[in-house]
Write a structure and sequence with these properties.
The complex is a heterodimer. Chain A has 13 helices and 2 strands, in the order H-H-E-E-H-H-H-H-H-H-H-H-H-H-H. Chain A is mainly α. Chain A has one domain: Orthogonal Bundle (MetI-like fold). In chain A, a hairpin with a 5-residue loop joins strand 1 and strand 2. The two termini of chain A are about 45 Å apart. Chain B contains 11 helices and no strands. Classes of the chains: A mainly alpha, B mainly alpha. Chains A and B meet through helix 2, helix 4, helix 6, helix 10 and helix 11 of A and helix 1, helix 3, helix 4, helix 5 and helix 6 of B.
Chain lengths: ~290, ~260
Amino acid sequence: MTQEKSWKPWALLSPALTAVFFFLVVPTLFVIVYSFWLRAPTGQDIPAFQFSNYAKFFADMFYPGLLIRTIRVALEAVALSLIMGYIPAYFFSQTKSKHKNMLIILILLPFWVSFIIRAMSWINILGDTGLINYVLLKLHIIANPISMLYNEGSVLMGLVQFLLPFMILNIYVSLEGIDKNLVPAAKSLGCTEWQAFKEVTLPLSLPGVSAGSLLVFVLAAGTYLPPMILGGPQNAMMANMVFKRVIGTLDWPFGSAISVILLVLIGLIVYAYNRYLGISQIFKSLS
Amino acid sequence: MFKIKGWSLIRFYTILVYIWMFAPIAVVILLSFNPQQFGTFPMEGFSFKWYGDLFHNTTIIMAFKNSMILGSLTAILTTAIGIPAAMAFIRYEFPGKNTLNTLLLAPIMIPEVVLGVSLLLFLRWLQQPKSFLLLLIGHCVLTLPYVLLVVQARLVGIKRSYEEASLTLGAGPFQTFREVTLPLLTPAVMAGMLFSFSISFDDVTATLFWATAQSQTVPVKIFAMLRNNISPEINALGAVMIVLTVSIPLLAGYLARRFSRRLE
């Protein structure tokens, strides 16, 4: 009986594992191998094991600058989604409205709407002839349109538009998990509303905050579309450079090296998060 | 007194976030009715002109057909391999379970450009040309983790005892799956299919790597159109996409509720 049972999960898993092995694991290994290859001046790829692609990346400040910008934009996206997401998540967890579920579905609804359309539409809002400039001009607040598009701010608008639901959902789930008696207990012991929030609710919601932040960071670091649509050339991020090198100039080895560096960045963040969570878990059990 | 004031501030802030989330969507729909040559403000008049143009644009109709076929096939395939995998993770204990689960969920964390490059590189090594099959395989890899998450979450909620009861009453394992587990799992299957359809339908980044001139999807087409300038036709196309992608999950939710009511 146990003999018969032991092969069953493997049989169930085999289609998914085969697919992921051949179409994810093996191709990713190819990227790593390719990043050590040489590119001949004729455009051919020569099998080799050397680090010239990585040396090229770190040769001057151009490519490392791209890496730093990617990290900065991802951190800004995390900060913005926290600022914009915590209060709505708190609202959802506290509201007594009977439409609560509908309100949550509503904030997740844009998630279903094609991202390219939501990103593109910021042009309609921020552009020189867009909604904001149109209103400000009509009200005679400004004489000439303000240029708001094709900078890091507009890239962030598009990016956070995409990432905010992830953050709200994560924080909401951890806020919902907090024992509803804790805040009244704190208040009966003399805490003010604000103190109860600061001392009880906020610390207990941190697992959701950190999980949301990790997800937002990782997704933002790999982003391609918002800098393409809402940014200028000076806003290009790592993913844009991968595309440019691979599809644009057909430099597969160098494009692979940039991909590997991007993967390492994300891997390090996830690893650090795991470690950090392990530590906080110990703190939790101690207190 | 302070409490009520604080709460109304929170509510006000939340409303602002809603407005911020929905502003781009509302503006696309509004501007799609602007008959002006440039798809921007001010609105001068109201017309369906750009929708008419849209239906006569054969490349967009082609892209639409591609997107629908690709999305549907991706949904079917991914669910077909995702459900057994989810069953294995929830219903069985075996060595290496957590590692494998992480591996199958990994594509969420891997940037799409890297997925795009890697699959293309593999294809290059195999000396195969880009094709529709590549797109289909790629989209399955892309959407599998989401299907897995949705189905696993649902499976945890289905009590093992239903299956055990069926087994003790003499049904075989396959019959039990078909007549007990699968009907209970239907909402998860539907959700998984919807998820993978809509992710496949919306995907741009990886698809840009994989698509050929013949297998362009709607978002890739929009992306190409954006490179020229933002024409009112894009707004109309965007509005159609919005109505379509939002109505599908709402419709499915409605149907599921009606269906379950009839069962009761």
